[in-house]
Amino acid sequence: MSTKVYDCISKIGDTIEENKDFLTDLDREIGDADHGVNMARGFHAVVEKIPKDDANIGAVLKKTGMTLLSTVGGASGPLYGTAYMEAGKVMAGKTEMTAEDFSAILKAAIAGIQKRGKAIRGEKTMLDALIPASEVFDEKIAGGSDIVTALNAACEEAEKGIEYTKTIRATKGRASYLGDRSIGHQDPGATSATLTLETIRDFLKEE
Ligand SMILES: Nc1ncnc2c1ncn2[C@@H]1O[C@H](COP(=O)(O)OP(=O)(O)OP(=O)(O)O)[C@@H](O)[C@H]1O
Ligand SMILES: [Mg+2]
Asked: 172: Cβ–Cβ under 8 A, 6 or more apart, which residues?
């Protein structure tokens, strides 16, 4: 990924827009029915604000994070905002992204989300998709896979993570107010995180 960072982020925005109602419906079950709406608003602002032709991936990711932080609101705004800003630090000044960079991006994004949200794996959040995805991505890269193959495996783990969130009780965020009644529902944030990874995978596959 080089000067196409704008294209990749705008594809993520398209995916969020296409799944806006789905994500909002998931959040209606265990939250306040705003996750898709929040994220779509954020990405509309991002696509307007980030430069189309800036090759500095780090700078574009940083701008993306800052825009999400200031426009998405709720729990997911600061969390996704932090994730993209941490990704921006990893990519500071870089115009190409290697598999090792993407590994570092995932780890930095997760660390940022955890620092901000104080959640661990198993609390029915976006982390239940992202952490297993990051782990398997690293395993695949260490085993010699290319970035798209590793991302395919990561997306499969993220999908499994979504399924896992159906089986557990939420202990963080608004869904935790429901206690055991949150069981049986898939987590909206785990779903948007998986959609994001799948969009990046598809984008890199096309390249
Ligand atoms: N502490 C946390 N750590 C990681 N992810 C979290 C945390 N709290 C919530 N989330 C994620 O955020 C998603 C909900 O995002 P949403 O945009 O609906 O914010 P919200 O919960 O409605 O925010 P608020 O309750 O502040 O209005 C959840 O599905 C979950 O994945
Ligand atoms: Mg919500």
From this structure: 117, 118, 119, 123, 124, 125
Closest CA relative to residue 42, chosen from 151, 163, 192, 142: 192
**Around Cβ 5, how many Cβ atoms within 10 Å?**
27
Mutation choice for ligand 1 from 125, 127, 128, 191, CB with most ligand atoms inside 8 A: 125
Q: Where are the domains of the chain?
A: 5-206
| Distance in angstroms between the alpha carbons of the first and the last residue of the chain | 8
Which superfamily does 5-206 belong to? DhaL domain (1.25.40.340)
Give, using CA atoms, the residue closest to atom 25 of ligand 1.
174
**Residue 54 alpha carbon to ligand 2 centre in Å:** 33
Contact call for residues 42 and 68 (beta carbons, < 8 A): yes
Q: Tell if the pTM clears 0.90, that is, is over it.
A: yes
Q: Cβ distance 185 to 24 under 8 Å?
A: no
3-state class percentages of the chain: helix first, strand second, coil last, to nearest 5: 75, 0, 25
E-strand stretches of 69-156: none
Centre of ligand 1 to C-alpha 71, Å, is: 15
Residue 52 CB neighbour total at 10 angstroms: 11
Residue 89 in contact with residue 153, Cβ under 8 Å? no
- pLDDT tens track for 33-78: 999 999 999 999 999 999 999 999 999 999 999 999 999 988 999 9
128 lines ligand 1 (CB under 6 A): no
